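Moderator note: this is an archived Q&A kept for reference. The question asked for a predicted structure of one protein chain; the sequence and the answer are reproduced below.
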Amino acid sequence: MEVKQTFEYFMLLEQQFWRNLDQESIQNITMKGQLKPENMLLYGEFGFTLIGLKHALLVEFCDEKVNILYLKTVIEPVLFASKSKTLSCHLIQHIVTPESDLHGCILVYHHDNLLPDISMLISKSKQEENAELSEDTMAAILDYPGHLPKDEEEIPTFLSVIYFHDKGGGDKGLTAVTSFAIQQKEKPTMFAHFERYKTASKQWLGIDLKLFVQ
């Protein structure tokens, strides 16, 4: 499959994944409905990774069994069908960050021109003891152009950023495809980041992006 076909195939399999997922698992990974499945879709992150905007994407459903099911029913069939063979998968073990435990999560990454931070994560993941990676390292791996507040002084200047897939039709046609935190001073970098994503997404994936900052 070519790039756009691969992307659309991923979207299809992801929709099937959610339709077939049992209610107990849905309740678990959505924290009993606090999160909405439509806001947990990863097709945008996959598309961005597929066309080389991102070094990697993280599958993090807070349930290792669901992560592995997603790997088996969505990611692996798509990578097998894709004409481009530049992406690989890794089941993360023994990696934590200041904000989360990544044990049992799935990393989908470019094995060509491997980012040193990804190589380090995979190496540490194979050890038997937990290793901590900084939030800045994870932001670099996932290509987020900003960071969470590091201290109380940065809390007032914190902004939440969401990129939406704009399908038309107003708010009902918006689907969140990536989100991250930035500081006020990082807005110029974020705007440049968005424009790069918006242009490439239209060219290679055939989707329109819309920016939301709060």
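Archived answer notes: Helices lie at 3-20, 23-29, 43-50, 64-81, 116-125, 135-141, 187-205.
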